[in-house]
Amino acid sequence: MTQTALDDLLESLTTKALTREVPTRAEMSALLGTSDDEVLDVIAAGSRVRRNFFGMRVKLNHLVNMKSGLCPEDCTYCSQRLGSTAEIMKYSWISPEEAAGNAERAIAAGAKRVCLVASGRGPSERDLARVADTICAIKHATPEVEVCACLGLLKAGQAERLREAGAHAYNHNLNTSAENYRQICSTHTFDDRVQTVKEAQRAGLSPCSGAIFGMGETDEDIIDVALALRELDPDSVPINFLIPFEGTPLGGRWELSPQRCLRILALFRFVFPDVEVRLAGGREIHLRGLQPLALHLANSMFLGDYLTSEGRPGEEDRAMIADAGFVIEGAAEQTLPTHRHDLVTIRRRGAGTALPANT
Ligand code: SF4
What we know:
The protein has a single domain, classed as Aldolase class I (TIM Barrel). The longest helix has 17 residues, at 125-141. The protein is of the alpha/beta class and 359 residues long. Helix content is 40%, strand content 13%. The chain contains 13 helices and ten strands. Strands 1, 2, 3, 4, 5, 6, 7, 8, 9 and 10 form a ten-stranded parallel β-sheet that branches. Iron/sulfur cluster is lined by residues 71, 73, 75, 78, 80-81, 119, 152.
């Protein structure tokens, strides 16, 4: 691409993002097709959008894996899948007290959101009760913390139960394009996932949904999943890069370069200019020494360990954030820009519903 063509592309992407206009497929394709030599120009353009909506703040999030491994589903990227021989820890539900203790340590280290995750197709009523007790314990100790639940596919009424228990958000990733979905999972569908995100949103939970890259997807798949996510209008979008566990079908697959990861992050910043774009699993092993550059695109990241693999020490991430000139977002600070922050919560409990009133 000539410098003039690159400048024109980035100017168009930036101008559209600042007015929350969706880029064209041709623009997204051209962005993903930029060369490694051009990646700093791409980051500089994405950084203008990031600073406009989120300043230099970085939101920290922490995962608590409440139930690990032994999943009946067969997502090819997952170390907890049916038939996985990855040597991960496997355990059934940890107690609400243990989960809350983990959450409290992460909050003290700067986490503003705690994500309570459990392997499995979806929660049973008993599972929901356990998670509700955990949310209660966390919120009792730290009322201002955001609690997100990530428990798989939701049945009717389950999102409301979580909302009533004090959950702020629900995470369910689309992971890849509808077209590519059957390549990565046979036990549930892309549409199942879309329905669960909608169910959470309908119940008043803040929708969190993102994707995983490095699973053999094409540029078209990346654009498709970005547009499918945009249609769902999530508040937060985690961007994962495949952690290729040995013992899973995608074990040993290393197809991403740090520059490719940065181009993907830039694409998501332009498609989700005023939405929380979160650096998630795989950032350390795929971005490697270029992680600080990713902060100019993402405004949020996970702190600490992932579900079944270890992240790097929190102090290294906090030092990276400070060295790159960013600041950790405080508990009292609003993450999303005011125009996305709906101060009115529609009542979905009490009279006219099957749920008890807030008394
Ligand atoms: S991603 Fe979730 S549903 Fe799929 S195998 Fe892993 S734990 Fe199970």
